[in-house]
Amino acid sequence: MIRWLGKKNASPIGIDLGDRSVKLVQFSGDGSRLVESARWDLPPAPAEQPPGSLGQRWTEAIKRALHGRRFQGREAVVCLSNRRLFLQNIRLPKVEDDVLGRLVQQEAASRIPFPIAEAEIRYLAAAEVRQGDAVMREVILMACHRPLLEEMLHAVEGAKLRPVAVDVEPLAMMRASVRQFRRDEDHMQRVMFVHVGLTKTMVVISQGNDVLFIKYIDVGGGQMDRAVARSLGLTLSDAVSLRRHNGDRRSDQQDPELTRGIVEAVREVIDHLGQELSMCIRYHSVTFRGKPIARLLLGGGEASSQLADTLTERLNLKCELSDPFRSLAEGRAPSRPGQWDIAAGLAAKLLP
């Protein structure tokens, strides 16, 4: 029998393995429509997690997210999140690419917090920068501890899926965001991508597909949950539930008094986030001279129109909500699309 070869009907399944949930996204083979998306919340973690327990929880959550859905095939793309990724901006002499690779390995050996023999190391050569009278190369060093990578891959394989690629969280987010704006003039602009997650906020500054800057900030939804619990006299689990249910409603369906209470409770956390983002913008303007940042694209589980408005005012920078499904011709997009940016970027990794 002759097997006819052609384009695949669907992309691999992008799997965002989070601390509270797993999110799955799949596009059509040409990336024009959404095949399926699913989210499954993880059960609360035990106070002391035995080795391998997180992987088991991920496996079970992936199985449940797949059950009864329209996902096609068994190929999957996963990524390393901030908890499993060592990331640092370094400056190295301007040299040829093969020499640069050796210099990165040497720098990594003295910087990463685990044995170099157990590390997977990658890097992004950003832009040339001036340091005094010298021209240097800004390099983004990325490394992971191989046992953590293997735990993640085993979790996916345990759900009967086949990992075909591993990405890093910042690049997945940027890919999902860049796909939203396809005009040439959009790709010429410098954009700040901000993903506010549970424990950290991820910041990426790029021009088109060229990454200039990546940083994780120690501000996230977990801090907002704790602030609401303290302010309103709630248990942490009740505060989490309150914020989530209020955020899931459309603005015209939210309780105004409750919303004001939550906003006031998290004000200090948002102030801190604004200060940190402002420092990132200043670092960019000093280090990467030329074009200013044109806009900020806000994603992650904490993305909201209210937060976007607040950041627009405090940073004096146009802030828009990310929607990784914005350019799709078909397929019903899930609610609160900003929280799907990582999974969507993973699903798009191998698309043409």
UniProtKB/TrEMBL annotation:
Q: Which species does this protein come from?
A: Lignipirellula cremea
Protein name per UniProt: Competence protein A
Q: Which Gene3D superfamilies match?
A: 3.30.1490.300, 3.30.420.40
> Mind telling me which Pfam families this protein's record contains?
PilM_2 (PF11104)
What InterPro entries does the database record attribute to this sequence? Answer: ATPase_NBD, FtsA/MreB, PilM
